[in-house]
């Protein structure tokens, strides 16, 4: 099983769409989350640890996650 984590800002459109599409593939489990604290599913350390592959929707999401991981 490959765990895919899709990250956008609010987890309302882009990452839930990716989650739905990729969850249909055999051997893939996908979760969408958002960087905003009021996201439908907020990004958490547990989700990052769960993921085998993390995919972001914008470069700003990558920079936010990278800077967050370095500061911890």
Structural commentary:
This protein is of the alpha/beta class. Helix content is 39%, strand content 25%. Strands 2-1-3 form a 3-stranded parallel beta sheet. The mean pLDDT is 92.
Short description:
The protein has 72 residues and is of the alpha/beta class.
Furnish the topology, listing elements before pairings:
Layout: E1 2-8, H1 14-22, E2 28-34, H2 45-50, E3 53-56, H3 59-71
Parallel strand pairs: 1-2, 1-3
List the defining traits of the structure above:
three-stranded parallel beta sheet, 3 strands, 72 residues, 25% strand, single chain, alpha/beta
SSE topology string: EHEHEH
Radius of gyration: 12 Å
Distance between the termini: 28 Å
**Strand order in the largest sheet:** 2-1-3
Sketch the major β-sheet: 3 strands, parallel
Helix and strand content put the structural class at alpha/beta
- Count every helix, treating DSSP H or I runs of 4 or more residues as helices: 3
Average pLDDT, all residues: 92
Q: Which strand-content bin applies to the residues?
A: 25-35%
